[in-house]
Amino acid sequence: MTFEFNSFIHLIFIGFIALFPVINPLGSAFIVSPYFSGLDRQERLNAIKRISLYAFLICLVTLIIGHWILELFGITVPIIQLAGGIMICKTGWEFLSPPKQENTEEIQTGNKNLSHQLENKLFFPITFPITTGAGTIAVLFTLSAHGSSKTISQYLINTSAIMIAVLALCILVFICYINANRLIKYLGSQREKIINSIMAFLIFCVGLQIAVEGITQLALQIMKVLHQAS
């Protein structure tokens, strides 16, 4: 019994340590912060609650049936990296582009539609692939294989341990996301603009990095197939 409990705690620790670098709650908090500019406190709180919930559900589905879903549609992780990276690059480019001049009526209309526009981005790309991307999926696949067992009871115990680690990270995501704006505002309005510009550039770079990783993995797979064929 003690051995099983120690294994349970060990798997929670392993899951947390493995997922922390790929989710990176603090770094992601600064990257997604520009999305929340213009929202009041309650709207921001509601948005971050939903992002944290979406992140947990993505990890849950990935851990339990994600592998079969990818096989069903014939999608590989490199393709997810490439497509997600392109979309993140697009978002970063939009943030980097200078805002167009708007009259008072357009600004008022824009403020009314701001919350609705964010609604369409809460799942994609904020939750996926910025908060929980292809790297998270790959790690969860690995953890799932690591926690696999011949007995149903042990499999459920191992999966529960990994999900506790995921839940802890999602709570950490919520805490970091909700407090990132306070830190940025503490630095002042001018510095806030500078940080937002830097974060926009980082969003573009993150997307480019994810896309390049996808291309690299695709190239390696193609080379492997060609090598086997020869």
UniProtKB/TrEMBL annotation:
<feature type="transmembrane region" description="Helical">
    <location>
        <begin position="198"/>
        <end position="220"/>
    </location>
</feature>
<dbReference type="GO" id="GO:0005886">
    <property type="term" value="C:plasma membrane"/>
</dbReference>
<feature type="transmembrane region" description="Helical">
    <location>
        <begin position="122"/>
        <end position="143"/>
    </location>
</feature>
<feature type="transmembrane region" description="Helical">
    <location>
        <begin position="51"/>
        <end position="69"/>
    </location>
</feature>
<keyword id="KW-1003">Cell membrane</keyword>
<dbReference type="InterPro" id="IPR002771">
    <property type="entry name" value="Multi_antbiot-R_MarC"/>
</dbReference>
<keyword id="KW-0812">Transmembrane</keyword>
<comment type="similarity">
    <text>Belongs to the UPF0056 (MarC) family.</text>
</comment>
<feature type="transmembrane region" description="Helical">
    <location>
        <begin position="75"/>
        <end position="93"/>
    </location>
</feature>
<keyword id="KW-1133">Transmembrane helix</keyword>
<feature type="transmembrane region" description="Helical">
    <location>
        <begin position="155"/>
        <end position="178"/>
    </location>
</feature>
<keyword id="KW-0472">Membrane</keyword>
<protein>
    <recommendedName>
        <fullName>UPF0056 membrane protein</fullName>
    </recommendedName>
</protein>
<feature type="transmembrane region" description="Helical">
    <location>
        <begin position="12"/>
        <end position="39"/>
    </location>
</feature>
<dbReference type="Pfam" id="PF01914">
    <property type="entry name" value="MarC"/>
</dbReference>
